[in-house]
């Protein structure tokens, strides 16, 4: 009766039904207005985050340390205190791929920056190991391409006259060194003179654009509609352009193609995994067909297994990034993070084996045999998924 008197005289703003609680029993609309001051929005946000964090504290420790515990809890009906399996897998999947993508970008940047610094400081190829004029020209083209990339990067950052002058000085130095090396290794004066002339004039012995940018022949499959054939032709053309830029373009084109490939692969992997997880559950259904379990039970096992794998990969990647950042300042950090990565790499197969043993309750011999067989099939499926993601990455 207390709740009835509390809302006496209050009507639903949507259907004018007398309110008997915080939600209308006729249309379901809340009595609370969405028009709130800013501090009310922050309060609601933190309330939601704290609610999620409470479930995270109940979910993550057993996920990482107790193989099969969350799955058995879910089977027994104790679910409200834990994050739902699909949501748990989806969140860990997105976070792990995002961090791995970030780590790949940082590693690429460090490698390119280190190479560019080596070119600018004269620590790149000094042509001393080149034995033929072609080798000299190849190293020269590589060094000049990195100088061009440095020049482009400097122009995009506003332009530093000192860097421009240094790039010009190093370009002349590399050309002089290449001509000097050509004079030493030239087997015939004619071939050396031809290459030296291209070095002196700044000409690059690259294949013509026409040779690399020939359009492919349109794809025509008789039983497909015209729009599908046009789509396949455009996809093949994109793949050809990306491959050519990746292997035959200049430094800027190679970097752009590599970034595009990495970005597209990581963007395609989550969707690919959404297909791969049900396939893994189907494998478990076939392997444990005599256990007479529902497919949904195997799917829950697959979701929790992949959530653990993604969380482990996330921690491994974070440990590697911390090692890269902190190792120059404290060498022991690199050793500690390397140990953390090793422990997680070893714990993944052990965890999955113990999880399979605990959930399906078979002897150790049968569990190990089935675990190995499922792992072997899944590795092929995962390789196929990675290959598909790479193809999709090249097709964009």
Automatic annotation (TrEMBL):
The keyword Transmembrane applies. The chain crosses the membrane at residues 86-104, 273-290, 302-325, 331-354, 375-395. Pfam families: DUF3667 (PF12412). InterPro entries: DUF3667. The keyword Glycoprotein does not apply. Keywords: Membrane, Transmembrane, Transmembrane helix. This is DUF3667 domain-containing protein. It comes from Dyella psychrodurans. The lineage of its organism: Bacteria, Pseudomonadati, Pseudomonadota, Gammaproteobacteria, Lysobacterales.
């Amino acid at each position: 009766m207390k709740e009835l008197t509390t809302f006496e005289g209050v009507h639903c703003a949507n259907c004018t039904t007398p309110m008997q609680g915080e939600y209308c029993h006729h249309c379901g609309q809340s009595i609370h207005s969405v028009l709130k001051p800013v501090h009310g929005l922050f309060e609601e946000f933190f309330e939601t985050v704290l609610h999620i964090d409470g479930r995270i504290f109940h979910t993550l420790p057993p996920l990482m340390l107790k193989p099969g515990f969350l799955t058995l809890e879910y089977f027994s009906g104790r679910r409200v205190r834990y994050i739902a399996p699909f949501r748990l897998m989806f969140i860990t999947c997105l976070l792990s791929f995002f961090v791995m993508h970030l780590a790949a970008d940082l590693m690429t940047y460090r490698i390119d920056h280190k190479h560019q610094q080596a070119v600018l400081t004269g620590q790149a190829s000094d042509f001393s190991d080149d034995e033929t004029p072609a080798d000299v020209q190849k190293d020269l083209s590589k060094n000049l391409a990195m100088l061009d990339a440095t020049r482009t990067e400097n122009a995009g950052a506003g332009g530093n006259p000192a860097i421009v002058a240094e790039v010009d000085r190093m370009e002349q130095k590399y050309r002089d060194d290449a001509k000097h090396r050509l004079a030493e290794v030239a087997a015939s004066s004619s071939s050396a003179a031809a290459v030296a002339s291209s070095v002196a004039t700044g000409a690059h012995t690259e294949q013509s654009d026409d040779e690399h940018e020939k359009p492919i022949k349109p794809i025509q499959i008789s039983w497909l509609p015209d729009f599908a054939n046009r789509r396949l032709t455009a996809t093949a053309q994109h793949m050809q352009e990306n491959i050519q830029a990746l292997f035959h373009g200049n430094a800027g084109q190679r970097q752009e193609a590599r970034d595009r490939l990495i970005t597209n692969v990581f963007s395609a992997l989550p969707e690919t995994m959404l297909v791969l997880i049900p396939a893994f559950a189907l494998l478990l259904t076939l392997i444990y067909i005599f256990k007479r379990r529902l497919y949904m039970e195997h799917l829950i096992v697959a979701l929790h297994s992949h959530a653990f794998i993604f969380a482990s990969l996330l921690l491994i990647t974070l440990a590697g990034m911390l090692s890269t950042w902190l190792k120059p300042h404290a060498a022991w950090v690199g050793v500690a993070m390397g140990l953390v990565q090793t422990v997680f790499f070893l714990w993944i197969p052990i965890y999955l084996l113990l999880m399979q043993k605990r959930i399906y309750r078979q002897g150790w011999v049968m569990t190990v045999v089935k675990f190995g067989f499922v792992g072997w099939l899944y590795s092929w499926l995962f390789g196929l998924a990675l290959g598909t993601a790479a193809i999709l990455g090249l097709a964009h």
